[in-house]
Specification:
This protein is of the alpha+beta class. It has 3 domains: 7-172, Glutaredoxin (3-Layer(aba) Sandwich); 273-323 and 419-611, Glycosyltransferase; 335-410, no CATH class. The chain is built from 24 helices and 13 strands. A hairpin with a 2-residue loop joins strand 12 (468-470) and strand 13. Helix 11 (270-287) runs parallel beside helix 17 (421-438) and helix 12 (290-306) packs across helix 17 (421-438).
Length: 613
């Protein structure tokens, strides 16, 4: 393998963006580790994604710099990974770097021994030392010098990280007896973190935790508990009214940088929107809250209108920015831009409603740009302006239509055309639910088209689902979440359409899970087939139970098998679900907030018990 930048050989948009960088980037493979051993060099691992703002920052200020590139090329074997296309690689190295630093994220920067073990790492590193962060110019020679002169210390550190990973894995997959108290503990962990004023959980930055919200909405439907209902209603109201929701085009940005859901990181992820669509639908079904029904409809429309490719499947995500120095300009508005396209009355209604000001200082880099949010009610605008509430609502509708048309003329952020099976599964399930709840046939038709694409292009003869499809072919093999969430999507389609082909395909996926993914000794499922060889840390066994932020593959597997049991009455499926849940019952209550989908799986399983004879 010659040392040159090889990223043009990849189908990853994140890797292709770096193909012209002077760094001799390699693609993660067995050959990379072989080369590192032959040259006796440490590996510099960069893991990121095309939607990641700080990944672009680090690329543009550091990896395009000739001085940084020269240091990397002379001292390291540089490897770049797309976390969306290789989530199993990302999961392991996130855990390893977190063991050293106490946190992870993207870009993830790891320094590895030639066999792939981490001995140092972090997230974003600037080019030069800044505000307490070491810069690459000073850090790279130090790391290389330590590796050369203190090899025993480096290897000891790497082995300590590996030991930590093994211990952590054992703590999160302790077997035990399943009971309803585990569900109560998990629900209580959410209530304890609830922000009663602004909704959601914890403080800034705020993520949606959609799976937990779904669990709570389901528990509200079951118990009518007023405290749980407040937790869900306040959270969904505040999210829907905030800038984290796209008030003009529908759909949700990835998370809020503040406690108030006001200023988001602007990228839009298919999985966030699918999961939140499901939450809003469930709560609308339970409470008949019209705001939640409208948000669900707008989000479903965004998925099928913006994220669907011509052949029916759904794209992975949409970028935040339109260029390296941009900060959400496509999504935001200056007061002047709004005035230019709206009538005086439309602006008079829209400015207070969306909180459009001359200098809002919402975005640090662009203090004149407004992140649109719902700041006041139409009734309060009517009271202040003397316009009737009915006319205010009409003016807001016409203003939104004009703003949507004007925004459509702007250069739009990049949409990653990669098709990811697990995320398509989540979207299909949400759209089936939208069709049934909102009585909209077009959502079911879109879900069916996506399932047909995945079935025809991403499933092999045995029934295993591949993870990623790009260009015109599969670019990464299947993982646990792909089997589970596409399998569940097939069952959702079966429930809605009664097509036996969907049930048969779901059963084949179940058999793949039992043959290739299940831990035959301890129960539960590995995140990748147990017989598949892996480079670097991929050899490490991992049975994920936490929601990160998509629902856990193991809890999803229990749901899949219980639902197969419900349709087929095959008791073996029930037994698989039970031993999967038991495999994590000894640790689930300690993980609490982070295993909401496990609680959902338990609740479903207990509901199935009456059918077992």
């Amino acid at each position: 393998m010659d040392l040159r930048n090889r990223l043009n050989e990849s189908e990853s948009p994140y890797l292709k963006e770096a193909a012209r960088q002077p760094v001799h980037w390699q693609i993660y493979s067995e050959e990379v580790f072989k080369l590192a051993r032959e040259l006796d060099r440490p590996i510099l691992l960069d893991i990121g994604a095309v939607w990641c703002h700080w990944c672009h920052v680090m690329d543009n200020e550091s990896y395009t710099d000739p001085q940084v590139a020269e240091l990397i090329n002379s001292l390291f074997i540089p490897v770049k990974v797309d976390r969306d296309q290789m989530p199993d690689v990302d999961a392991r190295y996130q855990s390893a770097v977190s063991a050293i630093t106490g946190g992870g994220g993207w870009p993830l920067t790891g320094f590895l021994t030639p066999d792939g073990k981490v001995f140092y790492g972090g997230t974003y590193f600037p080019k030069t030392d800044q505000q307490g962060r070491p810069g690459l110019i000073s850090l790279l020679p130090q790391i290389a010098d330590i590796y050369a002169k203190r090899r025993d210390d480096v290897l000891k550190s790497a082995d300590e990280v590996m030991q930590y990973l093994r211990e952590f894995e054992s703590k999160t997959s302790r077997a035990g007896k399943i009971d309803e108290e585990i569900i109560d503990t998990i629900v209580k962990s959410a209530v304890d973190k609830f922000d009663p004023e602004f909704g959601g959980f914890g403080t800034a930055p705020k993520f949606f935790n959609a799976t937990m919200l779904r669990l709570l909405a389901e528990e509200v439907g079951r118990t009518r508990d007023p405290n749980l209902r407040k937790t869900v209603d306040v959270s969904l109201d505040r999210i829907a009214q905030g800038g984290v929701y796209d008030q003009i085009g529908g759909g949700f940005h990835r998370y809020s940088v503040d406690r108030y859901w006001h200023v988001p990181h602007f990228e839009k992820m298919l999985y966030d929107n699918a999961l939140l669509l499901s939450v809003y639908l469930k709560n609308y079904e339970v409470t008949k809250n019209e705001l939640h029904g409208n948000i669900a409809r707008e989000t479903a429309d965004w998925i099928i209108n913006v994220m669907r490719q011509l052949r029916g499947a759904f794209f992975a995500h949409q970028d935040a920015d339109v260029g390296p120095h941009d900060d959400g300009s496509y999504w935001t508005w200056t007061e002047e831009e709004a005035r230019r396209i709206l009538t005086e009355d439309e602006f008079k209604a829209s400015a207070p409603y969306f909180d459009i000001r001359k200098l809002p200082e919402d975005i640090q880099e662009s203090p004149e740009r407004n992140v649109l949010r719902i700041a006041v009610t139409p009734a309060s605008i009517a009271s202040e302006t003397g316009i009737t509430e009915k006319d205010v609502r009409s003016l807001l509708e016409s203003a939104k239509a004009k703003m949507a048309q004007a925004r459509a003329a702007r250069k739009a952020p990049f949409i990653d055309s990669t098709i990811l099976a697990d995320r398509n599964g989540l979207a299909i399930s949400a759209l089936v639910e939208a069709s049934l709840t909102l009585k909209e046939k077009r959502y079911l038709e879109a879900a069916y088209s996506a399932s047909e694409f995945v079935s025809k292009n991403m499933i092999d003869e045995k029934g295993e689902v591949a993870h990623a499809w790009s260009g015109n072919s599969i670019v990464y093999h299947g993982l646990l979440d792909d089997q589970v969430y596409f399998g569940i999507a097939l069952l959702d389609l079966f429930d809605a359409m009664r097509n036996d082909d969907h049930l048969a395909a779901a059963e084949r996926i179940g058999q793949v899970l039992l043959d290739d993914y299940e831990d035959k000794k301890a129960g539960g499922f590995f995140d990748r087939p147990s017989g598949r060889k892996g480079e670097g840390l991929l050899g490490t066994k991992k049975k994920p139970i936490d929601d990160t932020p998509t629902p856990s593959g193991n809890s999803g597997a229990a749901i899949l098998f219980d639902r197969l049991f419900a349709v087929t009455e095959n008791k073996e499926y029930y037994a698989v679900a039970e031993r999967t849940l038991e495999a994590f019952a000894g640790s689930a209550d300690t993980l609490g907030f982070y295993v909401a989908n496990y609680a959902r799986a338990l609740r479903l399983h207990f509901g199935m018990r009456k059918n077992v004879r």
